[in-house]
Amino acid sequence: MGGKGRRMASKNKKKSNSIKSLELQKKGITVEGKTHLKLKEPRNSEAKLYGEIQVEEAELERFANRTLVRRYEIEFTCPEFTCLCPRSGFPDFATIYIRYVPDQWCVELKSLKLYINKFRNDKIFHEDVTNLILEDLVSLLDPWEIEVIGDFSVRGNIKTVITSRHSKEGSGTSQKI
């Protein structure tokens, strides 16, 4: 490309940049000669999103066990569990493991997901939340056996793992699954 061609390309590039700059300035704001796009206005903090409403209204649900000819084990892993430390208010993160041998009932998965998410703003000790999850599932399902493990992330150089178990009277098994 000759000298004239380069000058034309440079002139067109500058013109293009000026047009883009004007367009951005219309959409954004200019600070110290730089244009920054405006972010969408923050959502109204009063209006709740559908997921927030579903979590608030969550209740564990069950359905009939359709395989009563044998005992079998169901296992769930909930790797995104959160709650709040009741002393500091800082978030606690955990993986919750649930294993159970159903009798007449099984837990419905979406209801379990929403139930687990319900704890995210609760100030509750690790031991209490692990046992509460166990108690709620025992009340709902009356399983032959159930185990809930709260495997909490390290905080303050201490890792906490809570294991709660329940066996139905007359299940013919020990407390260990």
Strand content: 25-35%
The domain count comes to 2
The ordered H/E elements are HEEHEEEEHHEE
Structural class by secondary-structure content: alpha+beta
Per CATH, what is the topology of the largest domain? GTP Cyclohydrolase I, domain 2
Shape: elongated
Q: Tell me the major beta sheet.
A: 4 strands, antiparallel
Regarding quaternary structure, what we see is: single chain
Return residue spans where pLDDT drops below 50 for at least 5 consecutive residues: none
Detailed description of the structure:
- By secondary structure, the protein is of the alpha+beta class.
- It has 2 domains: 3-37; 50-167, GTP Cyclohydrolase I, domain 2, CATH 3.30.1130.10.
- Helix content is 32%, strand content 32%.
- The protein is built from 4 helices and 8 strands; from the N terminus they run H-E-E-H-E-E-E-E-H-H-E-E.
- Strands 4-5-7-8 form a 4-stranded antiparallel β-sheet, covered by helices on one side.
- The longest helix has 25 residues, at 3-27.
- The protein is elongated, with a radius of gyration of 28 Å.
- The mean pLDDT is 85.
